[in-house]
UniProtKB/TrEMBL annotation:
Keyword Endoplasmic reticulum tagged: no
DNA-binding region(s), chain positions: 31-50
An example molecular function term from Gene Ontology annotations: DNA binding
Keyword annotations of the record: DNA-binding
Family annotation (PANTHER family): ACREF/ENVCD OPERON REPRESSOR-RELATED, ACREF_ENVCD OPERON REPRESSOR-RELATED
InterPro entries: DNA-bd_HTH_TetR-type_CS, Homeodomain-like_sf, HTH-type_Tx_Regulator, HTH_TetR
Top-level division of the source organism's lineage: Bacteria
Pfam families membership: TetR_N
Name of protein: Transcriptional regulator, TetR family
Boundaries of every HTH tetR-type domain copy: 8-68
Protein species of origin: Seinonella peptonophila
């Protein structure tokens, strides 16, 4: 039990110091050696927790994606499209509060997805969350579609990622672009009920 507590403490120490250095110097300008020096640990200890510096960003992104379940639970009022937009608005809000560290984490998530042929844990979590929202809507008969829920979720997540990649990093511009692109495709795959979900 003590050993597990010590491992958790060491991992938190690495994360804390790495994030602080990333904020001070920029992610690209920080080396593993600088992180280990700031932590007062050997390089070998660092590599027991993270294979490389990039994995710190993936771990950080994972920890933020854990909030997704709470965000989904808070946003279950309104039409299905409104619920999806509320979820994305909250994700953008978190993103912009920590953009100096979450932007490189997002970039690393995309690179990881490309390297693993689309099998990114964080993108999968987002897809699962959108699937959940759509499945709940189907159960409440709030919408129907000739397409599978997973296919609809893929399109919605694709729009979200496209907007993050291709739009200037300003929260309102991102939300406006996301709402516009979602509107363009929404009617093509979802036939939404006009009744409100509560």
């Amino acid at each position: 039990m003590l050993r597990e507590a010590n491992k958790k403490k060491t991992k938190e120490l690495i994360m804390k110091n790495a994030i602080q250095l990333f904020k001070q110097k920029g992610y690209q300008n920080v080396t593993v050696a600088e992180i280990t020096t700031a932590c007062g640990i050997a390089k070998g200890t660092f590599f027991n927790y993270f294979q490389k510096k990039e994995h710190i960003l993936l771990y950080l992104a994972d920890s933020y994606m854990e909030l997704l379940h709470k965000i989904v639970q808070r946003n279950q009022v309104g039409t299905m499209k409104e619920q999806v937009l509320h979820i994305f608005r909250e994700l953008f809000s978190i993103y912009f509060k920590q953009i100096d560290i979450l932007h490189p984490a997002f970039e690393e998530t995309i690179k990881s997805a490309i390297r693993s042929n689309g099998a990114s844990g964080n993108i999968s979590k987002l897809r699962e969350a959108i699937c959940y929202v759509l499945e709940q809507g189907m159960e409440k008969k709030a919408f129907r579609s000739k397409w599978k829920v997973a296919e609809c979720a893929d399109v919605i997540v694709g729009i979200f990622l496209n907007v993050l990649i291709c739009t200037p990093l300003e929260e309102e511009k991102l939300m406006k672009k996301l709402a516009q692109q979602l509107e363009m495709v929404w009617g093509g795959f979802i036939h939404e009920s006009t009744k409100e979900i509560s």
